[in-house]
Amino acid sequence: MAQVVASINGRQYRLACEDGQEEHLQQLAGQIDARVAELRGKFGEIGDTRLTVMAALTIADDLSEATRRIRRLEEELTALQDARVAASDRAREASTAVVNAFNSAAERLEGITRKLNATLSSGVAIG
Fold first, then answer.
1. N or C, which end of the chain is more exposed by having fewer CB within 10 Å?
2. Is the dihedral of CA 50, 60, 18, 7 positive or negative?
3. First CA to last CA across the chain, in angstroms?
4. How many CB atoms lie within 10 A of CB 41?
5. Taking the domains of the chain in order of start, what are their residue ranges?
6. Helix (H, G, I), strand (E, B), or coil: what is residue 19?
7. Are 65 and 42 contacting, i.e. CB atoms less than 8 angstroms apart?
8. C-beta of residue 102 within 8 angstroms of C-beta of residue 109
Protein backbone atom coordinates (compact mmCIF):
# COMPACT_ATOMS: atom_id res chain seq x y z
CA MET A 1 0.00 0.00 0.00
CA ALA A 2 1.39 3.38 -1.05
CA GLN A 3 1.54 6.52 1.08
CA VAL A 4 0.92 10.09 -0.11
CA VAL A 5 1.36 13.36 1.72
CA ALA A 6 -1.35 15.77 0.53
CA SER A 7 -1.78 19.41 1.42
CA ILE A 8 -5.33 20.61 2.03
CA ASN A 9 -6.07 24.04 3.46
CA GLY A 10 -2.42 24.53 4.43
CA ARG A 11 -2.24 21.29 6.40
CA GLN A 12 -0.36 18.13 5.51
CA TYR A 13 -2.16 14.81 5.56
CA ARG A 14 -0.54 11.41 5.19
CA LEU A 15 -2.91 9.24 3.18
CA ALA A 16 -2.74 5.59 2.16
CA CYS A 17 -3.83 4.40 -1.26
CA GLU A 18 -3.40 1.47 -3.59
CA ASP A 19 -0.13 1.26 -5.47
CA GLY A 20 -0.34 3.28 -8.68
CA GLN A 21 -3.07 5.59 -7.35
CA GLU A 22 -0.73 8.15 -5.81
CA GLU A 23 -1.05 10.76 -8.56
CA HIS A 24 -4.83 10.41 -8.66
CA LEU A 25 -5.04 10.90 -4.88
CA GLN A 26 -2.81 13.99 -5.16
CA GLN A 27 -5.15 15.40 -7.84
CA LEU A 28 -8.21 14.79 -5.66
CA ALA A 29 -6.54 16.48 -2.71
CA GLY A 30 -5.66 19.38 -5.01
CA GLN A 31 -9.29 19.73 -6.05
CA ILE A 32 -10.43 19.81 -2.42
CA ASP A 33 -7.73 22.35 -1.58
CA ALA A 34 -8.82 24.53 -4.49
CA ARG A 35 -12.45 24.30 -3.38
CA VAL A 36 -11.54 25.32 0.17
CA ALA A 37 -9.47 28.25 -1.17
CA GLU A 38 -12.40 29.32 -3.39
CA LEU A 39 -14.78 29.27 -0.45
CA ARG A 40 -12.29 31.14 1.73
CA GLY A 41 -12.13 33.79 -0.99
CA LYS A 42 -15.93 34.14 -0.98
CA PHE A 43 -16.61 33.94 2.73
CA GLY A 44 -13.33 34.87 4.42
CA GLU A 45 -12.06 33.17 7.54
CA ILE A 46 -15.07 31.28 8.86
CA GLY A 47 -13.19 28.42 10.45
CA ASP A 48 -11.36 25.43 9.04
CA THR A 49 -14.05 22.93 9.92
CA ARG A 50 -16.79 25.03 8.38
CA LEU A 51 -14.75 25.59 5.20
CA THR A 52 -14.06 21.88 4.95
CA VAL A 53 -17.73 21.00 5.45
CA MET A 54 -18.79 23.59 2.85
CA ALA A 55 -16.21 22.23 0.39
CA ALA A 56 -17.46 18.68 0.98
CA LEU A 57 -21.06 19.81 0.43
CA THR A 58 -20.25 21.61 -2.83
CA ILE A 59 -18.33 18.57 -4.07
CA ALA A 60 -21.24 16.31 -3.06
CA ASP A 61 -23.61 18.64 -4.93
CA ASP A 62 -21.42 18.43 -8.05
CA LEU A 63 -21.39 14.64 -7.76
CA SER A 64 -25.16 14.54 -7.32
CA GLU A 65 -25.68 16.69 -10.42
CA ALA A 66 -23.24 14.56 -12.43
CA THR A 67 -25.07 11.41 -11.32
CA ARG A 68 -28.42 12.89 -12.42
CA ARG A 69 -26.94 13.84 -15.79
CA ILE A 70 -25.47 10.36 -16.24
CA ARG A 71 -28.86 8.76 -15.44
CA ARG A 72 -30.60 11.09 -17.91
CA LEU A 73 -28.01 10.31 -20.60
CA GLU A 74 -28.35 6.58 -19.95
CA GLU A 75 -32.13 6.89 -20.36
CA GLU A 76 -31.65 8.82 -23.62
CA LEU A 77 -29.18 6.21 -24.82
CA THR A 78 -31.64 3.41 -24.05
CA ALA A 79 -34.40 5.28 -25.90
CA LEU A 80 -32.11 5.80 -28.91
CA GLN A 81 -31.12 2.14 -28.91
CA ASP A 82 -34.79 1.13 -28.77
CA ALA A 83 -35.59 3.53 -31.63
CA ARG A 84 -32.71 2.10 -33.67
CA VAL A 85 -34.02 -1.44 -33.17
CA ALA A 86 -37.55 -0.34 -34.13
CA ALA A 87 -36.24 1.46 -37.23
CA SER A 88 -34.23 -1.60 -38.20
CA ASP A 89 -37.31 -3.79 -37.81
CA ARG A 90 -39.38 -1.39 -39.93
CA ALA A 91 -36.68 -1.29 -42.61
CA ARG A 92 -36.54 -5.09 -42.68
CA GLU A 93 -40.36 -5.26 -42.96
CA ALA A 94 -40.34 -2.66 -45.76
CA SER A 95 -37.62 -4.57 -47.60
CA THR A 96 -39.59 -7.79 -47.30
CA ALA A 97 -42.74 -6.02 -48.56
CA VAL A 98 -40.87 -4.63 -51.59
CA VAL A 99 -39.40 -8.05 -52.41
CA ASN A 100 -42.85 -9.64 -52.09
CA ALA A 101 -44.37 -6.94 -54.31
CA PHE A 102 -41.72 -7.51 -56.98
CA ASN A 103 -42.18 -11.28 -56.80
CA SER A 104 -45.95 -10.87 -57.09
CA ALA A 105 -45.56 -8.53 -60.07
CA ALA A 106 -43.15 -10.97 -61.74
CA GLU A 107 -45.60 -13.85 -61.23
CA ARG A 108 -48.45 -11.79 -62.72
CA LEU A 109 -46.29 -10.83 -65.72
CA GLU A 110 -45.37 -14.47 -66.25
CA GLY A 111 -49.05 -15.40 -66.06
CA ILE A 112 -49.97 -12.72 -68.61
CA THR A 113 -47.15 -13.90 -70.87
CA ARG A 114 -48.41 -17.52 -70.68
CA LYS A 115 -51.96 -16.43 -71.51
CA LEU A 116 -50.78 -14.33 -74.45
CA ASN A 117 -48.67 -17.20 -75.75
CA ALA A 118 -51.60 -19.57 -75.43
CA THR A 119 -53.96 -17.25 -77.31
CA LEU A 120 -51.68 -16.26 -80.17
CA SER A 121 -52.87 -17.85 -83.38
CA SER A 122 -49.77 -17.07 -85.36
CA GLY A 123 -47.69 -19.47 -83.35
CA VAL A 124 -45.10 -16.80 -82.39
CA ALA A 125 -44.25 -16.94 -78.70
CA ILE A 126 -43.71 -13.83 -76.65
CA GLY A 127 -40.98 -13.62 -73.99
1. N
2. negative
3. 86
4. 8
5. 2-119
6. coil
7. no
8. no
- Taking residue 80's Cβ as centre, other Cβ atoms within 10 Å add up to 10
58-82 residue pLDDT tens? 999 999 999 999 999 999 999 999 9
| DSSP classification of residue 125 | P
Q: Which residues pair with 54 in a beta bridge?
A: none
pTM over 0.90: no
Polymer length in residues for the chain = 127
SS3 content of the chain, % helix, strand, coil (to 5): 75, 10, 15
pLDDT tens digit string along 18-66? 999 999 999 999 999 999 999 999 988 889 899 999 999 999 999 999 9
Give the residue from 9, 54, 53, 2 showing the smallest Cα distance to 25.
Answer: 2
Greatest Cα pair distance in the chain:
112
The sign of the dihedral angle between the CA atoms of 27, 33, 34, 39 is positive
- DSSP, res 9: T
Burial class (CB in 10 A: 0-12, 13-18, 19+), 36: buried
